[in-house]
């Protein structure tokens, strides 16, 4: 049993009681809701004639089904119905809703941190499995199901079982072109998509402490792909600097000073006990790409796709099936694998630093003729900030479509979908068969610069090998 | 009993048999009925693809037969409710009118979802189930009684042993199957926890 970890401390601070069924009842510090998973829970509440217990600790946004191109209302049938249902539920309960007219709308896991509401030492829940993202701030954040959403709406609490804690220490400095996305893909490759079952992951070590908040969010986001119930990074100066710059605390600096001691107090103790510890050599990681149909089927860009026979027995058949679906050959690297679509978006990688990295690759280059490329900023705030820096221009000049914020092709619930067996170089988190809208579609997960490089080359490419773009100061389109 | 959650000790009523092993959640509620904002009205779509043919004409499915239209006990065979975790499946059955299900065995997640709605899933041997289904065919207007506390199913002059399972029985009989109600009853403790949290309004620094 773990002791003295952030997980233990935050759990204990929020434990209301132990229920007769053996689960702990936890107080919920922030409940995030979106248009797809909340309507049924609200209906269940209405049927019981119950009110929302803590509307002031609840925040709504629209992201999953919302269109990313034309946003004139009404939207298409299902999207419009879900939108209206959320609008009505939020208005009736007095819940703040970040709809597209507010300038603050975006993917639920991007907007919570932006608003300054994702804070260390909070419990955060949302009817969405990637809620783990908020662990980047040292919050305890879980995805929940429909009945649990109803529980949270009605009581402001949730019933949960406590898990074990695995500390994952990433040592050393990450190499050139290696990002948080590559760290988490590397961890999942090593521990497996079910390696985290029964655990919460605590990420630490030099490589993690050096990450900015966007990187820590990319990392924690994919804890769920590793099978863990949640993931977190202990809060530090990087975390506090982010919080201090949000509207929430800028408007109220006294609140920042008041809460800071609490945030510091929930950090894992130096002598905390963990149920398991894993060490990863950060200096040995490369930009990662997936070759298969689960996030654990990944390799470094210069490494060969494995022979199924070289894998543990229980993974061989799945590897064979995945290689057949993807049309990849074992023994070769993924470099040169042709790409039809480049998707830069999702709650894993659509924040400002992600867009900056991709734009720096695209500057002075053009998207390959055979590639359809789209960039979907994670939120309206990201979008506005990127436009102010001139990133939109860089993307558009290179040949990317610049879209409105939403989940888009990450799960393809709106019109942004793969067609037939198209291959997508994607900055999202799931490469499951059918995930991007076509059952024959093929997804290769990678970091944002690698997506940009693939868009330019028309094939999977090591971004570190791209030839330089002309002489310094040369203008794209101007011959020298 | 906690905060108005009924204790479910027995369910009585007429029954409807649905035969077959491994009936999955896609059959119970086809996926195209999931793009909805409420569970309300799902009852009409229960077993939809088996109850209506391609021309949308009603078939001879047991749930379409007038003699079973008021039934509230469903009698099924093995591994009923396998497949996805969608809560829409028990919701659809409940909204059609089902209050208890008796079968040879149930998929675990489906049984858990039923429990969160207060619907007992009670098991008995294959022979007992077959005998019960045949009896229901011949006696559609007569009552079946599922006794959760005593773990029996009674019809006509027969009382057969059934299995409810310890966790399910406690939850149903003690009226603690509904986590919303269970947790709402701890309001004072919830407020006390909130007061100790520095970030909640009114919380201590
Ligand atoms: S971007 Fe993708 S993973 Fe993230 S919340 Fe949306 S659908 Fe889920």
TrEMBL record, chain A:
Cofactor: [4Fe-4S] cluster
Domain of life: Archaea
NCBIfam families assigned to the protein according to its UniProt record, in alphabetical order: leuC, PRK05478.1, PRK12466.1
Name recorded for this polypeptide: 3-isopropylmalate dehydratase
EC number(s) recorded for this UniProt protein: 4.2.1.33
Region (Disordered): 290-320
InterPro entries, per database record: 3-IsopropMal_deHydase_lsu, Acnase/IPM_dHydase_lsu_aba_1/3, Acoase/IPM_deHydtase_lsu_aba, Aconitase_4Fe-4S_BS, Aconitase_4Fe-4S_dom, IPM_dehydratase_rel_enz, IPMI_cat
Aconitase/3-isopropylmalate dehydratase large subunit alpha/beta/alpha domain mapped to chain residues: 8-458
Top EC class for this record: lyase
Catalysed reaction, written as an equation: (2R,3S)-3-isopropylmalate = (2S)-2-isopropylmalate
Species whose genome carries this gene: Halovenus aranensis
GO molecular function, one term: 4 iron, 4 sulfur cluster binding
Pathway named in the protein's UniProt entry: Amino-acid biosynthesis; L-leucine biosynthesis; L-leucine from 3-methyl-2-oxobutanoate: step 2/4
Free-text function comment from the UniProt entry: Catalyzes the isomerization between 2-isopropylmalate and 3-isopropylmalate, via the formation of 2-isopropylmaleate.
Any GO BP: L-leucine biosynthetic process
TrEMBL record, chain B:
GO function term, MF aspect, one: 3-isopropylmalate dehydratase activity
CDD domains reported in the protein's UniProt record: IPMI_Swivel
Key words of the record: Amino-acid biosynthesis, Branched-chain amino acid biosynthesis, Leucine biosynthesis, Lyase
Keyword Transcription: no
Cellular component terms (Gene Ontology): 3-isopropylmalate dehydratase complex
Residues of the Aconitase A/isopropylmalate dehydratase small subunit swivel domain: 7-124
Xref: Pfam families: Aconitase_C (PF00694)
InterPro entries assigned: 3-IsopropMal_deHydase_ssu, Aconitase/3IPM_dehydase_swvl, AconitaseA/IPMdHydase_ssu_swvl, IPMI_Swivel, LeuD
Assigned EC number: 4.2.1.33
Catalytic activity annotation: (2R,3S)-3-isopropylmalate = (2S)-2-isopropylmalate
GO terms under biological process: L-leucine biosynthetic process
Pathway(s) this gene product operates in, as recorded in its UniProt entry: Amino-acid biosynthesis; L-leucine biosynthesis; L-leucine from 3-methyl-2-oxobutanoate: step 2/4
Role played: Catalyzes the isomerization between 2-isopropylmalate and 3-isopropylmalate, via the formation of 2-isopropylmaleate.
Known partners and oligomeric status: Heterodimer of LeuC and LeuD.
Annotated family: Belongs to the LeuD family. LeuD type 2 subfamily. Belongs to the LeuD family. LeuD type 1 subfamily.
Name of the featured protein: 3-isopropylmalate dehydratase
């Amino acid at each position: 049993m773990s002791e003295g970890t952030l997980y233990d401390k935050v759990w204990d601070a929020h434990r209301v009681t132990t229920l007769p069924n053996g689960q702990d009842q936890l107080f919920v510090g922030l409940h995030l809701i979106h248009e797809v998973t909340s309507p049924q829970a609200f209906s269940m509440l209405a049927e019981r004639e119950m009110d929302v217990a803590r509307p002031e600790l609840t925040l709504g946004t629209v992201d999953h089904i919302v269109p990313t191109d034309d946003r004139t209302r009404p939207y298409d049938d299902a999207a419009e119905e879900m939108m209206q249902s959320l609008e009505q539920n939020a208005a009736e309960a007095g819940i703040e809703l970040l709809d597209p007219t507010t300038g603050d709308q975006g993917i639920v896991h991007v907007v919570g941190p932006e608003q300054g509401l994702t804070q260390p030492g909070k419990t955060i829940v949302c009817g969405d499995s990637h809620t783990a993202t908020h662990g980047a701030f040292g919050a305890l954040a879980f995805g929940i199901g429909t009945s649990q959403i109803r529980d949270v709406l009605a009581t402001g609490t949730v019933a949960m079982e406590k898990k074990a804690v695995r500390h994952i220490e990433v040592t050393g400095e990450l190499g050139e072109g290696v990002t948080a996305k590559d760290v988490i893909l590397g961890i999942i490759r090593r521990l497996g998509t079910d390696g985290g079952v029964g655990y919460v992951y605590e990420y630490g070590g030099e490589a993690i402490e050096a990450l900015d908040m966007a990187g820590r969010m990319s990392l924690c986001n994919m804890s769920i792909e590793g099978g863990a119930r949640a993931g977190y990074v202990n809060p530090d100066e990087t975390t506090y600097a982010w919080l201090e710059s949000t509207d929430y605390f800028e408007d109220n600096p006294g609140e920042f000073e008041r809460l800071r001691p609490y945030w510091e107090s929930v950090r894992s103790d130096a002598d905390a006990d963990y149920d398991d510890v894993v060490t990863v050599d950060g200096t040995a990681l490369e930009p990662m790409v997936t070759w298969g149909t689960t996030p654990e089927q990944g390799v470094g860009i210069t490494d060969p796709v494995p022979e199924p026979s070289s894998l543990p027995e229980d993974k061989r058949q799945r590897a064979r099936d995945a290689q057949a679906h993807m049309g990849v050959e074992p023994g070769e690297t993924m470099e040169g694998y042709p790409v039809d679509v480049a998707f830069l978006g999702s709650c894993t990688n659509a924040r400002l630093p992600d867009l900056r990295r991709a734009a720096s690759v695209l500057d002075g280059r053009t998207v390959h003729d055979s590639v359809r490329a789209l960039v979907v900023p994670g939120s309206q705030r990201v979008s506005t900030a990127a436009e102010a820096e001139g990133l939109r221009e860089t993307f558009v000049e290179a040949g990317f479509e610049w879209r409105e914020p939403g989940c888009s092709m990450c799960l393809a619930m709106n019109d942004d979908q793969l067609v037939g067996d198209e291959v997508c170089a994607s900055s999202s988190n799931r490469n499951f068969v059918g995930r991007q809208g076509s059952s024959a579609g093929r997804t290769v997960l990678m970091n944002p610069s690698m997506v940009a490089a693939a868009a330019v080359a028309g094939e999977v490419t090591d971004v570190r090998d791209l030839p330089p773009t002309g002489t310094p100061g040369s203008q794209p389109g101007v011959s020298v | 009993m906690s905060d108005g959650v009924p204790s479910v000790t027995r369910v009585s009523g007429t029954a409807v048999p649905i035969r077959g092993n491994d009936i999955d959640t896609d059959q119970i509620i086809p996926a195209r009925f999931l793009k909805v904002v409420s569970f309300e009205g799902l009852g009409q779509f229960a077993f939809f693809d088996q109850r209506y043919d391609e021309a949308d004409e009603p078939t001879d499915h047991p749930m379409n037969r007038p003699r079973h239209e008021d039934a509230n006990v469903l009698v099924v065979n093995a591994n009923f409710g396998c497949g996805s975790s969608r809560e829409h499946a028990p919701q659809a059955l409940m909204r059609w009118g089902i209050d208890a299900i008796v079968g040879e065995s149930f998929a675990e997640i489906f049984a858990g979802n039923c429990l969160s709605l207060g619907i007992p899933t009670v098991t008995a041997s294959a022979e007992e189930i077959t005998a019960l289904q045949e009896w229901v065919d011949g006696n559609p207007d007569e009552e079946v009684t599922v006794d959760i506390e005593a773990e029996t199913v009674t019809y006509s002059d027969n009382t057969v042993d059934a299995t409810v399972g310890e966790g399910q029985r406690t939850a149903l009989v003690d009226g603690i199957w509904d986590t919303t109600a269970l947790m709402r009853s701890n309001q004072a403790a919830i407020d006390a926890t909130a007061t100790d949290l520095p970030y909640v309004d009114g919380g201590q620094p």
